[in-house]
Specification:
Layout: E1 2-9, H1 15-29, H2 33-54, E2 62-69, E3 73-79, H3 106-113, E4 116-121, E5 126-133
Antiparallel strand pairs: 1-2, 2-3, 3-5, 4-5
Helix pairs in contact: 1-2, 2-3
Length: 134
């Protein structure tokens, strides 16, 4: 597997560095444009969650994005320095009682676009791993 990574400060406008990384990887991985678009949206949602909820927009805390890929699959790991969250506490933003809530859509959107998403809490923070199969 090939590995490429980037680390960004926890500021929302830094996602463009992550997008550039994914576009670079896709020159070799060659996802169709429609699938690449889904991956970009899913990764964007997870990175924004890491920045806003994990690292509380503390620009001194980092979000690391590691992409490992070969001919068959691409794994995108997003790591923050936050306290973690309970994946089972995810709310369904389509329910009436949640429609007006200002958060709770990121993981829901990511899960709807990329079917293989795993989460774990580490000593350093949270990790979300998205696996995209060809």
């Amino acid at each position: 597997m090939k590995t490429i990574r980037t680390e960004i400060a926890s500021e929302k406008n830094n996602f463009n560095y992550v997008e550039a990384l994914l576009l670079k990887v896709n020159k070799e991985f060659k996802l169709p444009e429609s699938e690449l678009h889904k991956v970009l949206i899913a990764v964007s949602e997870i990175v924004m969650n890491a920045i806003v909820h994990g690292n509380k927009e503390n620009k001194f805390k980092k979000v690391e994005v590691i992409v490992e890929y070969n001919n068959e699959k691409m794994c995108v790991k997003i790591c923050d320095e936050g306290n973690g969250f309970n994946i089972n506490d995810d709310i369904d933003p389509t329910l009436d009682e949640n429609i007006m809530k200002s958060s709770g859509r990121g993981m829901f959107i990511a899960k709807s676009l990329v079917k293989d998403i795993r989460y774990k809490h580490t000593q350093k923070g949270s990790e979300v791993i998205l696996t995209i199969h060809r």
